[in-house]
Design brief:
heterotrimer, A mainly alpha (391), B mainly alpha (178), C mainly alpha (125), A: 391 residues, mainly alpha, C: 125 residues, 3 helices, 61% helix, flat
Chain lengths: 391, 178, 125
Amino acid sequence: MAETLDQIFVALKTWLVSFAPGQWQPLVSAVISVAAIIGTFASLFALTTVLERKGLGRIQNRYGPNRVGPYGILQPLADGVKALTKEDVVPRKADRVVHFLAPLVLVVPVFLALAVLPVGRNMVAVDLDAGLLFFFAVGAVTELSVFMAGWSSRNKYSLLGAMRAIAQMISYEVPLILSSVTVVMLAGTLSTVEIVEQQAVYTHGLADWNVFTPWGSAGFILFMIAAAAESNRSPFDLPEGESELIAGYYIEYSGFKFALFFLGEYIGMFAISGLGITLFLGGWSAPFAFLSGIPSYLWFFAKLMGLIAVFIWVRGTLPRLRMDQLMNFAWKFMLPMALVNLVVAGLWRFLPGGVTRWVICSAVVVGAYLALGRAVSGRAGPARRSYRFAD
Amino acid sequence: MSVTLCILAILILGGAGAAMALPRLIHCALALALSMAGLAGLYLQMNAQFVGFAQALVYIGAVAILIVFAILLTGGEGTAEVGRFYGSWRMGVGIALGVLGVLGLAVLSSRALAGQAVPVPEAQVREIGDLLMTDYVLALEVIGLLLTAALLGAVILAMPSASARTGSATHPAKDQDA
Amino acid sequence: MQTDTSPYLLLLVLMVGALLLALVPIGLARLWALTASPPKPGAEKNAIYECGLESKGDAWVQFRPQYYIYAIIFLVFDVETVFLLPFAVSFGGLSAGAFVAIMIFLLLLVEGLVWAWQKGVLSWK
């Protein structure tokens, strides 16, 4: 029973494909997978926009959207109609071709990145031998899209926002990739499917997730911080800080093109969270052996919603960073820390298993954290926080 | 000649041609990025997955960004009022012909043209890694040295202008937070 | 969703699907604009938006070289990760000597990074 439920979508697809004539079957199979990916994640986008506004509203002690539909749940529909009917204003001085292409160059790669994420057992669109590298390669294209949007608008604020966004994205991409390299070192493959399958085994009833090791937990934290910065989420949302840059690189976009930027950002956030789940949180596997009867795709999406909730929570809690803090943090803390984590992953393999391995690896991580923290902040330890304006 | 190869060739040559011909420098950089994407597709078509994705990661993600930053560094608009052919174009043509000759020799002497079946390489990432860490480990260290030298050289070249130009910002918003 | 064919077919279909997802609504919006609400462009409306103030000067100006320095350092580390990934994949079967070799490779780059840090290049001003 559990097995059937787990594989129900795979079986459904096989059944649908069997209707197509022989030589069309690969194409039909691809179209069904693509429709499933786009449909699922686009609906998730619609849901998340409401949840985010609701959640932020609650954090800020207000209601959030509550007019359209019960509890405001139909708000995305209203937003969609609004985006479709608004006039598409393009500035006179803008570079019209690049201005039109920029949202497309954002939306296509972020959807492509979803293709290598295994959302359930046997449920992955493509299992590439270099899947992880594919993810980072298509992710790199979004930087170009941000630049195209900012530059083609010919607006000072949008170009400044784009430059900031790219500086931020390239700075955090290095720690992002380096923290995933640790997983690859211990998994021995770049295929996302195999990485998940290696984590879906249980010792003493507990899953072998990478996050349950010293290098894995340090890598996961580094990865998620870098992921927040890569997807321009608060507290790394300087590129679109509305109080200083109006809205960053997409000021001059209106109507559905603006909605596409919104869509691209959220899908990018889903993709990078999904990669974090795949690499560190065991993908579609259950945390405990006795829970593995629950269908695998439910686990994946539960984890995804959990990470999104954390993103919303962080956005409602932390203030925005300053540009110099942002860049210093990337190059002087995240990058060295990710490099140390590589060494820790190497030690983890060469040291004999047992408690000593745990102690040594954790000690290296904590020691590096303390030393780097001291070097960057210039303080010896945690000091009492002083509130200059609130005391 | 497969259809994929034709499309990729059009993409690469069209992008490269546009990169030379377009009047606005940023457009040229974007066209170059398109050409790079076509090259990545060409690698994929030859079953070289790792090289193809690495090409996309490095050339679209990093080199294209570096080029547009360099263009904005030199003054943004950059429509220089010089002809399309300037400087020592004879030398340029000479170098281009030389490169073409070397490539042509390599193609002519390859086994594909002699009618022999070329074994399709199954370049799994693991094999690349094994070779990189055993036979080519010295090359790896030399590359590391080269990268470090490139880092030092580029930073030294860009640094003096950093101290000279920060004071003379012409941008109203840039003074505060660029 | 097993993969029985070339993976690139699916990626191509996904690309087309994502493009359609973007282009179809833009087309619909254009259709709506043509039939129900014709655009009314104006000098003020289609000007650059700078919070109501009139825009002064061009946006395409010279940017500070610090962006360029960061891009260079990023490029170097990006190339480095391309070499690290195959190493990481075959790490399980490698000897300790190979690990030392890659550590030397990393140390060379770290040396460059430390040098840049000492020179103050990494500090955003």
